[in-house]
Design a protein that fits this description.
686 residues; alpha+beta; 8-stranded mixed sheet; 5-stranded mixed sheet; 34% helix; 20% strand; elongated; binds adenosine-5'-triphosphate; binds magnesium ion
């Protein structure tokens, strides 16, 4: 007898479950996606013990009849695909027909479902893949799926679950993200004791951001919207004999991007606050992450990351979603077009918005804003790169300390900030049995998730409770108006009053009081000028009266040889003068003496750290930027330098002309606005 056997469905499902379901959040993801595919407008997620004990998702979608309710648990049973051709243009979140059988093979599942207008609904009970009971039941229309005792029959899997608070954080991140893509739908997330997310329908994404993250986050974000008609459809053209000459030529459609991006002053230490949705699907994608980093190049430091919510829409045939079992990765048919479109849209938006940094936000060091987004968990299920191993402890109580410790453990960001009173008004007055009785947990979670939308007492059955008693539409509009007012488009018309310690320019304008860092302002001006001049090979150089001799170590000589040509194009004229000495005969205008010496040393030092991994092309851009930034930094007006009014005016005028007057090439803010409104508020006039 041969040795090969066909696996039973049961085993096959458990194997599939290994790919699709690795933690409670991935169950929530699959069930949420099913509810959305079923056209639900209201989705309630309940979890107990971080989802290990119970996950229950209730939707008001189309429901299933009795036959479908049973078929849904069969492997490869789906209502979303018919033929292989359908795979080329998937418009639903699910399509594999694998999620329910996989989940049912590793948990106890109860499905209750009813199609609107049909007399009876159906209840199905399954445990470990075995159907235990099927019966008719009087049910409201829609579907409820309760998944309990996840991994009860796969102890190895269960062992890999993290602490309850970690799993809950992942679930929360997931629900939050889907709530963001569907502002018009009602989302709720409840744990055994309290409401974590309550987001009644609103009209716009900005309002949803306000509902979920609060005013402070919204105030840090700027809206983005762009569209690009596609030149051609991504699919290869059909063979000539398949083309019907009568058929009118099909419109290839368009790429659309909408979303929010952070002001340069907000810098995060990891990518966890970048959320990318493609056709309303949350994905991880290196290509788009790269496009986003490119857009922020020289605006924030390369080691920092912005907060970005990106909603990309494209014809379904432009994106292959069938590349990953958990459907969290995609492949674009026109990769370069999409990469460049995202980079350019974001960059243009940044250049046009030129947001002014406020005093309060600028005070927060990078990473101090860790609570701005619920970045505690990776946006998509599965551990983020940085997640260290954490021994699961079933009995671990949910205390303030361990929620905090968890948050620190799986975030790259530094310590969570103390929850500050400014947020508390959003969390509504205390009520018996409600959130506020759970002070310890509440505070930690407040820092973790910024749950601005916690309704009073944890009761969310009333759809009128959302972001406290405030009206999200009106509040959002107010934040947006304040946002729009504070930009750097009128720097040239500011009136300089003088300097603070000969280092900062003080200037007034209609919008308030400005403080401008004279060194970084000049640095930005020079940096952009050098890059522009370099592009057209016109960097201005000046001949030194006497050549400057620079001693280098042998390793530095090697680095110098590698970057010599680029230095020359940036205005240097350098010749070897002995085996370890260089003679600098000419240098870019404005750079001399020790500044010149330091600049050269700095560029050689930084270039010696280049890794071999970066591609040639990227290498050159990095080198160019580095040289420009270094020249600009060393040639710029220093702090502790007196400036006359004409010089200050010139500086402001030139700064206004730059693309990014917001920050220096290293990401530091250039100009801070103490707005008229803030001043009035501080003096208790409003
Ligand atoms: N909440 C729901 N409301 C209505 N129908 C549902 C719901 N959940 C599942 N179904 C039905 O059950 C089928 C099987 O669901 P399942 O999640 O296993 O597969 P899928 O969504 O088709 O594909 P995937 O495995 O990619 O998620 C779905 O195609 C859908 O017809
Ligand atoms: Mg599904």
């Amino acid at each position: 007898m041969g040795r090969i056997r066909v696996l039973s469905d049961q085993v096959a499902n458990q194997i599939a479950a290994g790919e699709v379901v690795d933690r409670p959040a991935s169950v929530v993801k699959e069930l949420l996606e099913n509810a959305l595919d079923a056209g639900a407008t209201r989705i309630r997620v309940e979890v107990e013990a971080g989802g290990r004990k119970l996950i229950r998702i209730t939707d008001d979608g189309c429901g299933m009849n009795r036959d479908d309710a049973l078929l849904a648990f069969e492997r490869h049973a789906t209502s979303k695909l018919r033929s292989a051709d359908d795979l080329l243009a998937i418009a639903t979140l699910g399509f594999r027909g694998e999620a329910l059988p996989s989940i049912a093979s590793v948990a106890r599942v109860t499905l209750e479902t009813c199609v609107e207008g049909e007399g009876a609904g159906t209840r199905v009970e399954i445990a470990g893949g075995k159907i235990l009971r099927v019966e008719d039941a009087a049910l409201p229309h829609g579907t409820t799926l309760a998944v309990s005792d996840l991994f009860f029959n796969t102890p190895a899997r269960r062992k890999f679950l993290r602490a309850e608070s970690t799993e809950l954080a992942h679930v929360t991140a997931l629900v939050t993200h889907y709530a963001l893509v569907h502002p018009q739908k009602h989302f709720e997330l409840l744990s055994a004791t309290h409401t974590i997310v309550s987001a009644p329908p609103v009209t716009r994404t900005a309002e949803r951001i306000y509902q979920i993250f609060g005013k402070d986050t919204l105030a840090q974000l700027l809206p983005l919207a762009a569209e690009l008609p596609l030149a051609h459809a991504g699919l290869p053209a059909p063979p000539p004999w398949k083309v019907d000459p009568e058929e009118p030529k099909r419109d290839p459609g368009a790429l659309r991007v909408a979303g929010f991006y952070s002001k340069p002053e907000l810098q995060k230490l990891n990518r966890n606050s970048i959320y990318i949705f493609v056709n309303k699907r949350l994905i991880r994608d290196r290509l788009l992450l790269h496009a986003i980093s490119e857009a922020y190049r020289n605006v924030i430091p390369p080691t920092s990351f912005p907060v970005v919510l990106l909603f990309l829409e494209m014809p379904p045939e432009e994106v292959d979603v069938n590349v990953h079992p958990a459907k969290t990765e995609v492949r674009f048919r026109q990769q370069n077009v999409i990469h460049d479109f995202v980079r350019d849209s974001l960059r243009t938006a940044l250049i046009q918005a030129r947001p002014a940094a406020g005093f309060l936000a600028a005070q927060a060091a990078p990473g101090a804003s860790a609570s701005l987004m619920p970045s505690a968990a990776s946006p998509t299920p599965g551990p983020p790169d940085s997640e260290p191993y954490h021994q699961p402890q079933d009995s671990e109580p949910l205390t303030s300390e361990n929620v905090r410790a968890e948050a620190e453990a799986f975030q790259l960001t530094p310590r969570l900030p103390e929850p500050f009173p400014g947020r508390l008004p959003f969390t509504a007055p205390a009520q018996a049995g409600g959130w506020n009785n759970q002070q310890a947990w509440g505070e930690a979670a407040a820092a973790l998730f910024s749950p601005a939308s916690l309704p009073p007492g944890g009761d969310c059955s009333d759809s009128s409770v959302g972001a406290g008693s405030e009206n999200p539409a009106a509040e959002t509009a107010r934040v947006e108006a304040e946002q729009a007012a504070a930009n750097l488009n009128h720097l040239g018309s500011l009136r300089p009053l003088g300097q603070l310690r000969e280092s900062f320019i003080l200037a007034t304008g209609e919008d308030g009081l400005w403080i401008i860092d004279q060194h970084v302002a000049h640095e930005r001006i020079l940096f952009e000028k050098i890059l522009r001049d370099r592009q057209v090979e016109r960097v201005q150089r000046q001949r030194l009266l006497l050549p400057m001799l620079v001693e280098l170590k042998p390793a530095q000589m090697v680095v110098f040889a590698r970057i010599a040509e680029e230095l020359e194009r940036n205005g240097f004229e350098v010749e070897p003068f002995g085996p370890q000495t260089l003679a600098v005969k000419a240098a870019p205008v404005g750079l001399e003496g020790t500044a010149l010496e330091r600049m050269l040393a700095e560029v050689i030092e930084q270039s010696s750290e280049d890794s071999d991994e970066v591609s040639q092309n990227e290498d050159l851009t990095t080198l160019r930027t580095r040289i420009a930034a270094s020249i600009a930094c060393h040639a710029a007006i220093k702090v502790n330098t007196a400036l006359d009014p004409a010089r200050m005016e010139w500086l402001l005028l030139e700064l206004e002309k730059t693309d990014h007057p917001t920050s220096c090439p290293h990401g530091r803010p250039i100009a801070l606005l103490y707005s008229w409104k803030e001043i009035q508020r501080a003096f208790h006039r409003i």
